[in-house]
Structures are given as C-alpha cells and as structure tokens.
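To assess whether the prediction recovers the assembly geometry, we first specified each molecular entity separately, as shown.
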Amino acid sequence: MTALRRSRRPGRTLTRLAILVLVGGYLVLPLFAMLEFSTRGKGGSRTLDAWIAITRDPNLIEAILNSLGIAVLTVLGMLLLLVPAMTWAILRVPRMRRVIEFLCLLPLAIPAIVLVVGIAPIYRFLTPIFGGSIFTLVFVDIILVLPFAYRAIESGLRSVDVITLSDAARSLGAGWPRVMAQIVVPNIRGGILSASVLAVALVLGEFTISSILSFNTLQVVINLLGKRNAFVSVAVSLAALLFAFVLLYVIARFAPGGRPGAQAAEEEG
Amino acid sequence: MSTLPAATAERPSPDRVGVAVQMLDMHRSYGPVHALDGLSIEIAPGELVALLGPSGCGKTTALRALAGLDELDAGRILVDGRDITHVPANRRDMGMVFQAYSLFPNMTARENVAYGLRLRKIDAQARRTRADEMLELVGLAGQANRYPHQMSGGQQQRVALARALAIQPKVLLLDEPLSALDAKVRRQLREEIRRIQIMVGTTTLFVTHDQEEALALGDRVGVMSSGRLEQIAAPAELYDRPRTRFVAEFVGLTNRIHGTARDGRVDVLGTQVPLLEGSAGPGPVTALVRPESVRLEPEDGAAASVLAVSFLGSLCRAQVRLASDELIVAQMAAAESSGLSPGTAVRVSVLPTPIFAVAD
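The predicted structure of the complete assembly is given in tokenized form:
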C-alpha cells in the first residue's frame, strides 16, 4: 500500500507542478505582456518614458490620491454600518439577519448602470450639501462593497459565540460600547480585515459609476490616458495592479488580525 | 414561599458575607410558552441553591433574569433588599459562568480574569495581583499567560469561575458550567466549585439538569417544571420526602408499584408503608418506591426472579420481575448482592419508609 502510494507521488507532484505553471502563466503572462508593451521604444529599443510620464501627470497623481481616499472612507463607512448592524441582529433581533443579508446581497443582482440611474437623483440632493466632492462616491461604493463585506464579516461573527461573549462581558460590567469595542471587534478581526481588503480592491478597480458620474478616479484617468497614449495607459494599469497587490499584501500582513494566541503558541514552541 | 435555612451556620468564615436574593412571582413568556410562571425563590446569604429541572423548564430563564440578561414580563428581583428588577446587567454586580465556553479569545487567562477589574478601573498592579490570586484559587497559577484555545475545557471553565469571582460579585450565577466536560473533570470541578463557594461565601445560584450535580452541590435544591417551582428543599429532604408527583418521579430512580392506599398507608408487596403528604388515595394507587427501599432475599420457589444484576462499584443494582409481571429495580450494597444472579428466585419486600403515591 505504502509502496503503491510512493509510486504515485512523482506523478502527483508533476500534475501539481503542471497546474501551477499553467495557472501561474495564465495570470503572469498578461502582466509580462503589459510590461513589455509599456517599455517599447522606437526601433525595437526599450524605454521607461511611459513609466516616467506617470509621475509627471498631475491628473494621475490626483486620481490615485482620490481613489485611496475613497477606499479608506469606504472601508470606514462600511465597517461602521455593517459591524454594529450585524452584531445587533445576532444579539437582539435574529429575525432581521435574513433581511440584512438580502439587502446586502442586492447590489450583486443590480447592474452598475441601473444603480447609477437610481442613485443619480440622490446625488442631485447630495451635491448642494457636499459641494459635488469626489468623496460623495463613498456612498455608492459602500453599497457596491456590501455583498462582499457582508460575507466576510458574517464568517467572522460565525467563528465566535458572540452572544455568550457579550453576555459574559455585560455580566462583568461592560456596557454595549465596550462590548463592541473590546470584545466583538477584536474577536472578528479576521472577518473585518477580509472585508476591508475586498473593499479596497473593489474601490480601486471601480470604473463604471465614477465614469458615468464624471468623477476622476484612478480607473477613469487610466481610461482617458489610454485614449491619448496607449503606452502610458498600459504602464499605469500595470502600476495600479501592482500597487493594489502590494497594498492588499501590506494590509493582510501587518494589520492586526488572526488569532492572537497563535503567536503565543509559536513563542511557547 | 419557602423558609430560608441558616445556610452558612457551620461553615468556615468566608472572605466576605453573601447577600440575600429574593425572586418574587416572576413571569416570562416567549409567545405561547410560559418560561416562568409565577416563580418565587429566596436564597439566604452565602447559600448555594441548585435549580434542577428538565430542558425547557425555565431554570436558565430564571438565572438569566437574575443576571439581567433577560427581562421579566412581571415579578420582582431583590438583592440585599434592593430592587434590581430594572437594573441593566452590567450594573448588577453579578459573576456568571456559562454553559458554553465564554472566555474572551483575544485575551490571556490573566487578562480574562482581570477584565471585570479593568472595567472597575482598578489599577494595573492590583488587577494583576487579584487575577493571579484568583487563578491560584482555581488551581491554574501556571496558566496565566495562556490563551483560551491553548487550554482544555475544564481549565477554561476554571478560568471563567476565577473571572466571575474576581469582581467579588454579590451573587455568583452558574449556568450548567460543567455540562460540556467529561465525567471525571466534571466531578473534580464540581467539588472545587463547592470548596471555593464555601471559602468565598458568595450567594450562589447553580442551574443544572443533572440530579447528581444538584444534590451534591446545593445547600438546597429547587426542582422546576413548566416555569414553576415544584419543591425546594435540602437534598436529602427532596429525595426522601418529595411533595409532588413530578419531584418524586424526576429526582432519583423510582419503581412504580401498584398498591392500595388506606388511612395514610399503602400496601406495597405485602408491607404497610406510610404515605407522604400530597399522595393519592384512598384506593388503588401507584406507589413510587426508591430502589434502595426494595429488599431482595433469595428463596427457592419465590414468585419473583432476578433478570439482571449490574455492578456499580460499592453498589449493586438488580432488575427483578414480580409475580404480577411488573419490572422493578432494587439497589443494595455490593456485599449484599452475593447470592443474586440472573434467574435467582427472590422474595421481594419494601422498607416501611414513607413514600409518595400517585393515582392509578
């Protein structure tokens, strides 16, 4: 039996390697193609002109900062909206869980263009209040990220016994704000982190709504650049992808998350 | 209303004296279900009352109402003479240990124990000292830096007990804290809970569906059914002198043997046995007889015969078929069971200790 298993191992390893190469190639080759295209010079030479142009385009810098600002505000808004609402539903009104889930998943079923048409009248109301700031996009983006954030936070809340933990904290003297801040949030950090990463990725990649509402976010500016200069556009697209990748990695790696005990267990060997 | 015993009269002097608890005419309904139906219980200072009952009888609802985690539809709760019926849970000053593991996963054992003290703004050094004392009290002095997932179920419940006691609560509430543990740990921890409760002298309400646990732990045991208190009494009294059919049938093992009641006595298997107050009769009744009240004597030609014998360590239990075809269980010291084996013909009699009888 063992010998049979051993004899199968090399084949299995080869299969795994082949799948890894195929999938890796499928994902990485387009990036290499983008890099190759964005560094093409005249007469077959290589140049970094397109990449240097990125740093010299004030519209682009502004768009990057705008998108980052929107991403941060969207994450904050989404967390402030979802975490207390979902926790409260578990603790106090369990019958509302299905309603909240339905509302949160609804944006998945509604095409972005339909969302914009529905939201446009609200923006006519918001513009006099917020002065047409690009950051009003945060309201739409919060709605867009709800389906993904809901699932991530829901899985975090399911991983701990929120009811018993909050009962225990209350019996020890904690009021609701402390229960949320000191007990619930620290114990669903994994879910909060996942929701935040998804929200950042979504906001940085969002194009349709920003474009229709005429806000200059990163994706809108990349699109405009593409019409002017294909090399710069591809360079920016690649840079944006790499930037998003690094940002998500940094959030996942360095934000406080996971089980604190895991670290202690490692320390104790 | 029950009479309060002098619960702490013969105990070692505790660190602090417990307070009296009065739960008066409590009502709580969930839709058509009456979880509490006029429940009244009084607990003396320093006393440990065990609430016993089947699932859904309302015992946990009563405990949660006392903790402030569930609201009452009607009724009052007084602690140390003060009405706390509408005081929120976080201001009731009660320590609670839950059935489910309730340690905060993001905190170490020490941080868990110190959490209630942190909320009371006790300074860091005093918190640490107190937390370490409490962990030592529950036998976990060396586990202070461990996280809940690094501890066994028994250890987690000990930490939960230390956490509940660290705040020096007015009342300690234990909601089936042993039910998730294996039998051996359960027995050990049960004894420790009793030892610690006597040492600290905190008034305690312990909820369980386990009779052995309730009878072993409680100064008094309250038996609940359908949101009502059937009887509350010292364990021995509850066992020997049940006041209702439910208590007689729920607490301990009982044989149901047909007999005839007359003049406050019932004829059971040829023995005239006094009837407890509240029993049915006169006329044909079913007597509820404890297995240890049944006597078996091997006798050739006797109408009853032994079906099976179970060895339980110091005790032995024999299943017997009577001449009437009824099956009963007898319990005796293991040493007295030497002549019994499956098929042995036996003469069956009943000790004349008072028993409860219900209508046929």
